[in-house]
Amino acid sequence: MELSKRLARVQPSATLSINAKAQQLRREGVRVVNFAVGEPDFDTPAHVKQAAVQALHFDRTRYTPVSGIPELKQAVCDWIRDFYGLNYSPSSVLVSCGGKHAIYNVLQAILNPGDEVIIPAPYWVSYPEMVALCDGVPVIVDCDFEKDYKLTPALLENAITDKTRLVILNSPSNPTGCYYDRDELVELVAVLNKHPHVTVLSDDIYSHILFNNRKWVNVAMVDETMLPRTVIIQAVSKTYAMTGWRIGFAVGPEEIISAASTVQSQSTSNPCSIAQWAAIAALRGDQTCVARMAEEFENRCQYLVERLRQIPGVKCVEPQGAFYAFPDVSAFYGKKYDGIVVRNSVEMAEYLIDKANVAVVPGSAFGNDRCIRLSFALSWNELEEGLNRIDTALKALR
Asked: How many domains does the chain have?
């Protein structure tokens, strides 16, 4: 059978494949430290789980409106108002099966064949692939280590053409943890204001995990003229340790949200009804759990970065949020183990899983082959043991 030609342009998720290999080794009895995991290691808050139980008790198990139940859409508007200082109506909200689904729906709604999408690299693995699935053109803009892997005004200006439809901004970033502050966003918006045909997809999925008392800000918050050209992506996944509940949101101009809702209506239809009621409890309930998780991630980040920088040859930008580090390990490329040369990030990841039983994600999946991605959503014992293994393994390369 002949498959769709567009699939030839799409690669499977590297994070999922690495996770699968780590899980297989664990099933075989091997003790693996898994730095590849992309989800909080905390339990979903008790009041959120209780809301799901209550939803079951009240038989809230039927189909819901395609774009989400009105109660949740209003909760999203209130949450955005309180956190962003921006006002949206429920008609500007689409509830989807996770943030990833929300992004895909928006891209399907606004991209035509040949439309260009600017994606700063390093990037989240799925951005280019989703653009390709929409017959769009991913325009990868390489960002420098010295600039904390962030898009600069000059890089943005040079990347924009008449075919540019969208810019994707992810802050704090997966995989680097880098965050755009207000001054940096003001400079980027100054460029975007010269090109009114360009829309921004602001992937804010890690917005509540910020370090060093940083304050949340995105492009629509620094300049109200960007509101009609900005789509915000959010979810309960990372903020409330609800990755498996699969509830995400797209918030933005009603025309785009309505079109994305139409896409969803002909694919998945509504998200899980029970998870929607649980998400209301997350957004409207006690937020102490959010601050507690962010504080713990910050402490782990400091430890992990300090340990990585103690390994001769490793360079690492300090994350400013999220729960990932993206160390540059290219100084070890060309070195050998058992007569085998490690030449790139894929082979480095294979070396670490095979010889140290440590799972990491190759940086090539994120658009930078010099690096590997490590999640610090792990226990302290796992962090220490895993970093000890990485230290030993890297020093063993000759």
From this structure: 2
Please report which helix (H) or strand (E) contains residue 325, including its range: strand 324-325
Per-residue pLDDT of 54-70, as tens digits, reads 999 999 999 999 999 99
**CA–CA dist 187, 191 (Å, integer):** 7
Predicted confidence (pLDDT) per residue in 335-353, tens digit: 999 999 999 999 999 999 9
Last residue of a domain, one of 264, 284, 304: 284
Pairing state between β 372-375 and 361-362: antiparallel
Q: Over 90: is that where the pLDDT of 371 sits?
A: yes
Say how far apart CA 390 and CA 383 lie, in whole Å: 10
Range of the domain at 380: 5-43+289-396
For 174, phi then psi, to 5°, come to -105, 110
Measured between alpha carbons, how far is 273 from 380 in angstroms, rounded to an integer? 36
Q: What is the CATH number of the domain that holds 337?
A: 3.90.1150.10
Quote the CA–CA distance of 374 and 34 in Å, as a whole number. Answer: 9
